[in-house]
Amino acid sequence: MTIDEIRALVADDMQAVDQLIADRLRSDVVLINQLGAYIVNSGGKRLRPILVLLAARACGYQGREHQQLAAVVEFIHTATLLHDDVVDGSELRRGRETANQLWGNEASVLVGDFLYSRAFEMMVEVGSMDVMAVMARTTNTIAEGEVMQLLNVNDPDTTEERYMHVIYCKTAMLFEAASRLGAILAGLGEDAQQALGTYGRQLGTAFQLVDDALDYAGDTSAIGKNVGDDLAEGKPTMPLIYAMREGTPAQAQLIRTAIEEGGRAHIDEIMDAIEKTGAIKYTRALAQQAASDAVSSLETLPESPFRQAMENMARFSVERVY
Prior knowledge:
The chain is mainly alpha-helical and 322 residues long. It has helices at residues 3-9, 11-25, 30-40, 47-58, 65-88, 99-103, 105-126, 129-152, 160-185, 190-217, 220-223, 229-232, 238-246, 249-261, 267-277, 279-296, 305-319, and strands at residues 92-93, 96-97.
């Protein structure tokens, strides 16, 4: 089952989600309409809202509130992208200029705040304290992850453990929440909610590890950003951490200096060190293990096309090239 086949399985639900996003994005403030529509419609994979839909259906949910929560998750994700690009000074996302490049940092931050607040407004309408508790904890954890990543920037002493904790907070937590929401809506107990949450957490971990590998082994036109952007921003991601650990003293020092200073001054030598140490292979192996753990956590669910799609989404997360 390809990612397009996964989307086709929830096509009707996604059409409703897209309509909800368009409707709830509207504001009397023209700039919010312009900037919000630009980032929401900029060609993202929509994996997180799709995950809400799949999880709900896999858990036997038959209502429509999963569509509302899928839109909520997409709004929160979009808000984090707007804020991320300002913090990172990014110029390119998904092959297009970032919103902060077009409208400025101030507008991007404020529209991100609008999306956050609109998401919570929509959550209240669902009327579930369990949903509110999960999403409040999730947004708080994401914010903590953003701060932790900021502290790691230009720090070559960032450990693998610290790196993994950051990607849990920044990325995997929202995947975890998206999956758990399906079990909550279906009225399943804590054990089932935790199992779905584990699936999402491991899926998100695999997804981010592959993203970080693609930053050094991807194609710019496929991944929609410049290869080596993480290095340019001084981010010590897994390929760099591993290459420093396993490389020669000269390679380790070169990478340390590059992380401390940022930029792409020695990108070719660093790419060579990453290749020779097997850092990409190691990073992808970690992603593969996380994806396998994600699939295993679904064993408590009954067999269905939706469960199968969730298993295939885990496989897609590590096989993708974009």
